[in-house]
Design a protein that fits this description.
Blueprint lengths: L9 E4 L1 H9 L1 H15 L8 H13 L4 E7 L2 E9 L4 E6 L5
Parallel strand pairs: 1-4
Antiparallel strand pairs: 2-3, 3-4
Length: about 100
């Protein structure tokens, strides 16, 4: 687990996550909490190997990182990708990948 706060850039949610957020304030709070955890380097329910890969990706600047978090609506993934001109983070359900 990285102790460094990361730049998550612009945040997007998929249609599936958005639909659940519109219908559930508690799920919306869980998504926000997961984003805060992710931003602080807490990768949630990922393997130790994936957590180490995330940490290395932050150190080398590629910023290809992903976290997994359990919510009342099932597992969500938070994924950050660094583009040449910006960084984007997407919240999605695994079946939307």
């Amino acid at each position: 687990m990285s102790k460094t706060k990361i730049n998550i850039g612009e945040v997007f949610v998929t249609r599936g996550v958005n639909a659940k957020m519109e219908n559930s304030k508690s799920f919306s709070r869980e998504v926000v909490l997961s984003l805060h955890q992710f931003e602080s380097g807490d990768w949630g329910e990922t393997s130790e190997e994936d957590a180490l890969l995330n940490d290395r990706s932050i150190q080398d600047g590629t910023m290809d990182v992903m976290g997994a978090y359990e919510t009342s609506e099932g597992r969500i993934w938070v994924k950050t990708d660094k583009m040449p001109d910006k960084t984007i983070t997407t919240v999605l359900f695994p079946d939307e990948y």
